[in-house]
């Protein structure tokens, strides 16, 4: 073995961990601002929606206080927004502006490792933010079951279900203008019609089926069942399989998009 080979640092057994470590090193310098927003956002959401709007909903929803009913929806929708936010401009810039992905595949790392490591960081960001949200709403008395701990793995699966296809989308668009369109025509409609603020049963049939087709509704229903300690509106297995299907299909689309951009 030559001196150069001995001096070269070995890749970990799971090379994607090297990619994850890269993002964690950068996050170590910026986490303080993230922690502040992670606690401030749920407090403002609970006060504004739970106590503000909730004051006008005397009967609650389905016999449940409006604050308690809306909290799991806010957790899931916030997780979706953080996941897509971390999967759009950061991914696009790694291709278009700062070229991080090109440097990583020259390291050398496999394209799958580059994709997996970055997705793992997005998963870390969303789960830690959701944990802070869950802690805050628990202090407000909006959690009624120990099953609320299941919110975190549900949020993790929801993150993969929306982040993976968003990675694929961000890898093929030619301008960041298309990323703003994603928020306008996907994130906002999902947040409004996927059962976050009111039951989807009150929607017209067409919009109701749109809600059922979105990954967010499945995440909201599971989170609401967990925090309230009740059965979800749909099968737990069905919810999980549907979200897993989104994650798997998104992974394949993202891998294809990454290969098209990184393989010269």
Number of helices: 12
What percent of residues are in strands? under 5%
Low-confidence stretches: 1-5
Number of E strands: 0
Largest sheet: none
Distance from first to last alpha carbon: 31 Å
Rg, nearest Å = 20 Å
Mean pLDDT: 89
Q: What is the general shape?
A: globular
What level of helicity do the residues show? over 70%
Q: How would you classify the quaternary structure?
A: single chain
| Category from helices, strands and their pairing | mainly alpha
Order of helices and strands: HHHHHHHHHHHH
Summarize the structure in words.
It contains 12 helices and no strands. Mean pLDDT is about 90; it is low at about 1-5. It has helices spanning about 5, 15-25, 30-50, 65-85, 90-95, 100-105, 110-140, 150-170, 175-195, 205-215, 215-230, 235-260.
Features of the shown structure:
264 residues, mainly alpha, 12 helices
Summarize the model shown.
This protein is mainly alpha-helical and 264 residues long. The protein has helices at residues 3-7, 16-27, 31-52, 66-87, 89-96, 100-105, 111-139, 151-172, 177-193, 205-213, 215-228, 236-262.
Secondary structure blueprint with pairings:
Layout: H1 3-7, H2 16-27, H3 31-52, H4 66-87, H5 89-96, H6 100-105, H7 111-139, H8 151-172, H9 177-193, H10 205-213, H11 215-228, H12 236-262
Helix pairs in contact: 2-7, 3-4, 3-7, 4-7, 4-8, 4-9, 4-11, 7-8, 8-11, 8-12, 11-12
